[in-house]
Amino acid sequence: MSIREGDSNLRSNMGEEELLKDVVITSRLDESISFFEKVLNWSRKYSLFQYPFATACCAMEYMTTMGPRYDLGRFGAEVPRFSPRQSDLLWVVGTISHKLAPVLVRVYEQMCEPKWVISYGVCASSGGFYNNYATVQGIDSIIPVDVYIPGCPPRPEQVLDALILLQEKIDRSKAEWRFSKKYDNK
Amino acid sequence: MTISEDEVKKVRERFESDIISSYQDKDMVVFILKKEALLRFVQFIKEDPDIKMEQVTDITAVDWYQKRDVRFEVVYHFYSYTKNHRIRVKVPVEEQDPKVPSITGLFSGANWFERECWDMYGIVFVNHPDLRRILLYPEFVGHPLRKDYPIDKRQPLVKLIKPEERRERP
After folding, report:
1. At the top level of CATH, which class does the domain B5-166 belong to?
2. Which residues of A touch B153 (CB under 8 A)?
3. Percent over 70 (pLDDT), chain A
4. Residue A139 is part of a domain; what is its CATH number?
5. What confidence category does residue A19 fall into, taking pLDDT thresholds of 50, 70 and 90?
6. Interface list for chain B against chain A, based on CB atoms closer than 8 Å
């Protein structure tokens, strides 16, 4: 329930303090910000520039999903950029070893805000069946992850589902995230 | 395909005091050799016109931790294109002094195999031109394919975030 300045009848009938107790007041400024956010999120979620960080066999499945039969481009994620500086969605496709972990962190830090990460397949999400001296047990121990895709390798339908989940997440995001504490891995 | 019996006989006679034992395995003839004789042996099987090994297919090691007195065993595989036959050579190596002469002078293809063997098992190949780690990073301590390497030991290069500290971005 919101109160506009024109609602003088309501104001006169009830005590003002009682009225404001459990009512959220939205001014025109707030409304315009939320409208701006909606437009911004809508445009962001349908123009994801992706950077595929492909290290293993999952990359073949990623190519299948990008290909004409499943066509990730239908959902707005059309263009893979081959520089992290030009992209805002990082796909970590495949096993990440401890030797490779600094490279992945560097790639993530090179991406401009806003940025999102999808962990593609079990190896990237949890280490998969590689529980040994070489493999990172899930990339969420080195960079933050937005969406996880299980499967070894995942079906293309799962990948499309993950992209739609990410779009829903982008749609929900607020403008305040810009001012929240930055992720730091130092 | 294995080498013929005449050739096995020839090798046995020539390296009588150096061969610890030899037997016919399922796929090829195996020679278990003292490590002092390795270079001479490899040179012989490379240059002998009947055996004529032209390629080293693989060099690896076996860790017989707490199962044998001599802990390591370096395994060589050789292959001949022209004769289409193979030989396997095993060299036992003690834990206290894990050193084997490098065969990179005879087969330059052995270079990376020996580096990998050093990386994973910690076997020193004497006179190797560039004995560095090949697969793991230089900061890594120890040799992970040794049986006494702790199975859950990790040596990360970046700080790992603990599960309770992982934050979802807003």
Report:
1. alpha beta
2. 133
3. 76
4. 3.40.50.12280
5. low
6. 136-137, 144, 149, 151, 153-163, 166-170
